[in-house]
Every structure is written in structure tokens, then in C-alpha cells.
From TrEMBL:
<keyword id="KW-0285">Flavoprotein</keyword>
<keyword id="KW-0560">Oxidoreductase</keyword>
<dbReference type="GO" id="GO:0016709">
    <property type="term" value="F:oxidoreductase activity, acting on paired donors, with incorporation or reduction of molecular oxygen, NAD(P)H as one donor, and incorporation of one atom of oxygen"/>
</dbReference>
<dbReference type="Pfam" id="PF21274">
    <property type="entry name" value="Rng_hyd_C"/>
</dbReference>
<dbReference type="InterPro" id="IPR002938">
    <property type="entry name" value="FAD-bd"/>
</dbReference>
<protein>
    <submittedName>
        <fullName>FAD-dependent monooxygenase</fullName>
    </submittedName>
</protein>
<feature type="domain" description="FAD-binding">
    <location>
        <begin position="2"/>
        <end position="331"/>
    </location>
</feature>
<keyword id="KW-0503">Monooxygenase</keyword>
<dbReference type="Pfam" id="PF01494">
    <property type="entry name" value="FAD_binding_3"/>
</dbReference>
<keyword id="KW-0274">FAD</keyword>
<dbReference type="InterPro" id="IPR036188">
    <property type="entry name" value="FAD/NAD-bd_sf"/>
</dbReference>
<dbReference type="InterPro" id="IPR050641">
    <property type="entry name" value="RIFMO-like"/>
</dbReference>
<dbReference type="GO" id="GO:0071949">
    <property type="term" value="F:FAD binding"/>
</dbReference>
Amino acid sequence: MDADVVVVGAGPVGLFLAAELRLGGIRPVVVERLEQPAAERKARGIGVLATEALTRRGLGPQLAAAHEEGMRDFARDHGSSLGHFANIHKILPDEDRPRTHIWQPELERLLADHAVGVPVHRAHRVSAIESEVDGVTAIVDTPQGEQRFSAAYLVGCDGGRGKVRSLAGFGFPGTPPLLRTIAGQVRFEGPVPPAGRYPGGTFLHGGSMAGVTESARDGEPGGPVTPAELAAAIRRVTGEDVVVAQVRDSRRFADQARQADDYRRGRVLLAGDAAHVHSPSGGQGLNLGLLDAANLGWKLAAVVRGEMPETLLDSYFRERGPAGAAVLRNTRAQSALLAPGPHVDALREIVGELMDLPQANRYFSDLLSGVRERYEFPYPAEEPVGLHSPEKSLVDDDGRITRLSDHTRTGRGVLVLDPESRDLAALAPKRVEVVPVTNTESFLLRPDGVIAWTGGEAELKGALDTWFG
Ligand SMILES: Cc1cc2nc3c(=O)[nH]c(=O)nc-3n(C[C@H](O)[C@H](O)[C@H](O)COP(=O)(O)OP(=O)(O)OC[C@H]3O[C@@H](n4cnc5c(N)ncnc54)[C@H](O)[C@@H]3O)c2cc1C
């Protein structure tokens, strides 16, 4: 075997997964078709759960450093610093659980540094896969000709148009595009109509960013958006002629919503956009994809180390499948609210009014962040078990204060024990760090930050057995 796991794609999800696998003590290798990291500024932020996942691995300071500038750019381009649902910018920030505004290329640089020590082979394009009972081989086109990379498992983190999904025979059901958007950093000459909704679509314009969202059409061209193309789209939507002198940093995207029918076929798994595509409304793709990586990384490492049975991998789709479906649902709802027409205008007004109610505002915030989504476990348990833990302060017996994330960098589980439960420490296996505290009730944290137990000794034994063997 050339590695324990071949990760296809050095996008954010592939890089984070590779780092997680390495933290789990196994040997991943990454193959990436691009010669250089992509400069395209797709995502401009990551959600609460992804921010917490990276903070658990010690990347909090880097995220905080990027956030300020990212936030400024967001407010400039969107005309508001508040979060939005279908461009209705009213969602108040969750002060206790912040998201991070960071441009995707910067995030990828940070993750590449974090994955230090993992071999990343660039200009390597996977063209075929051979799956066997005890391993899988990627056939890779490289500048030196065809090469073969064999491993125990292969994970397709090769994006929405990735090949691994079809090569391995996954289904990818879903809905075709309703809307398409073209946008970029634009220099106009002369007058520009006001931004907003028009009968034919939406004209987006804030700071130097401008674009158009309108009904999807057949034969969408590829490549960068040209000035003439954008001017024609603005004319279609607003009825006004504009002179577009320049379009930089352009993007075009649609809102098809599709999800793989499983995330594992034998020794081939999917994570990130390879497993689910949807509109970027609300900026949720990376929250979803990085959490796939967090969920899969420690499980796959434990199986490869031989400490856990392969059935542990069944919990990956059981937990992450519903998370993906939830994002498809809310992005479809956002697309419905972004469609042109007076009926939708009326619906948007009503949704906007609902968002003024504090409870409803919180509902939309939680919907986009996913913080209320609970994993179903194979043992009975009540909240907060199954939820991702927020960052917390922990006070030890001597009054010293640490953060929960100070204990999670090693990628092990964490058993936090209050003074009444200290004898339970004896149950903790090697891959679980015991942290005695005085300021919170006992809980068990999986390596992906999910609360796996609170309560009594019998339940703890069951939880440790389920997740750590
Ligand atoms: C305009 C826009 C705005 C967005 N804004 C946000 C946002 O604000 N927040 C958010 O969370 N998400 C946002 N998203 C979504 C986000 O960009 C994606 O969810 C994210 O890129 C997914 O990461 P990934 O690693 O799964 O896939 P990708 O980033 O697509 O990476 C896949 C990698 O695999 C490589 N690859 C493909 N095929 C092969 C092959 N055969 N062999 C080897 N390598 C291969 C590719 O070159 C690429 O590097 C936005 C998307 C768009 C289009």
C-alpha cells in the first residue's frame, strides 16, 4: 500500500480530512489535479460548527485574525453585516457561537499549513478507481504519466463535479437549477440602476461587487463572466442599459440541489461538495463539508488502526446524511424566496417581518448554523448528547482556567469529570483524555466535538464502547 487513505482533492475538505487522518495516527496521501491552489474567491466565510471544528485543532487565532477583514468585505458587498436568509439581511449574530468571515483561498492556505507532513501531489488527476475487497487503487494522470496509488480506503473530496462519485457508482439524486447567478468585482462607466428586485430577477450591487440572479436557462456558458454578458443580464433584469468597463474575480453559479444516496460504497467514501451540492445562499457549503471531514476523520483513522470495527463507518452517513439533507432543504427554500415575481415579493415581506421576532430570528440563525441538529446515536440519550459542544471554559481543582479547545488538539476524545464523578476516570481508554473540572457537569466529547454522554456510569460504559471500543 502507498498509504492508508488516498484523499482525492486538496480543496478545504480534502486538506482538513487529511490533517484529521494524520492526527489519528495513520498515513493519508492527497492527490490534486490543479498545479497550484485555486485563487477563486468562492466562499467568504465558514459557519459556527466549522469555526469550532478548526478551533478545536488550534486554528482559532488564525481564524480570528482573518475575520475582521472578511467581515469588512462582507458588509461592503452585501450592504449589511447581518446574516441573511435569501438575501433578507436580518439575522443577528450568535454572540456565544460566532462564525468566521474568511476568503476561501486564505482558508485553504491555512489548512494546507495545518496539514503539514501529509504528502500532497499536485497536477495529479484521478481518472479511474479499482476497488478490491481489501483495498482500493486510484489511477492517476500525472506529468510523468500514469501512476497508481493503492490504499485501504479512498475518499472523494473532489468537489461537486468530482469524478469519484460516478466512478464508484454513487447515485446523486436531487433537483435541477431554478436560478442562476453571475457576479464579480465590476467597474461601471456612467449611471447604474438601483440594486434590488425587479420583475425579471435581482440586481445585486454593493461596494464594487455587482451581479444578477435570474431564472436558470439551458446552455449556461462556462468560463469567466464577460462585461458584455453582465451588461446584457442587467438589461434583461432592470430594463436599463449600463456600461460595464471591467469584470474581475467573476463567478457563476446555479442552485441545483443534489445529495449522494450514500457516503460510502465499500472502501470508497465521499465528503464535502462531492457528496452534496446546493446553492451558496447563506454560506453553508463549508460548514457542511468541513464537518463531514471532522466526522469521518477520527472514525476512519480508528478503523485503519484496527481499534474499531468497520461498522463504525456506518455512523458517518447516518449522522452526516441528515445534515446534508437539512442544508438542501433550506437552500431550496431560499431559492424559492429569491425567484422573481410579485407573489414572491409578498412572501419575502412576510418572512422579513417574521425575522423581526426574536424567536424567529434565532430560528433562522440556528437553521443556517446547524447548531441545533442532533445526531442520532445507537443508544438512548437526551440532549445535549448528539449535539456539537460549544467552546467552554473549564476550571480545575486548583482554580486554573482552560478552554475546552485546549484539550482537543490531539484529536483524542475528552472525558470531562465533575467532582462527584472522578472515579469514572478509570473507565477512560487510551484515546480519551480525562479532564477534572469543578465548574460544569460531566460529559464525554468525541474527537469531532460531539457530546457523546452525560449521566451515569452504565451509560458512560456504553458510550465509550460505541465510539472508542
Ligand atoms: C460563489 C460561491 C460562493 C460560496 N460561498 C460560500 C460561503 O460563503 N461559505 C461556505 O461555506 N461555502 C460557500 N460556497 C461553497 C464552497 O465554496 C464549497 O462548499 C467548497 O469549495 C467545498 O469544498 P470541497 O473541498 O468539498 O470542494 P472543492 O473546493 O471543489 O475542492 C475539490 C478539489 O478537488 C480537486 N479535484 C477535482 N477533481 C479531481 C480529480 N479527478 N483528481 C484530483 N483532484 C480533483 C479540485 O481541483 C479541487 O481542488 C460558495 C460557493 C460558490 C460557488
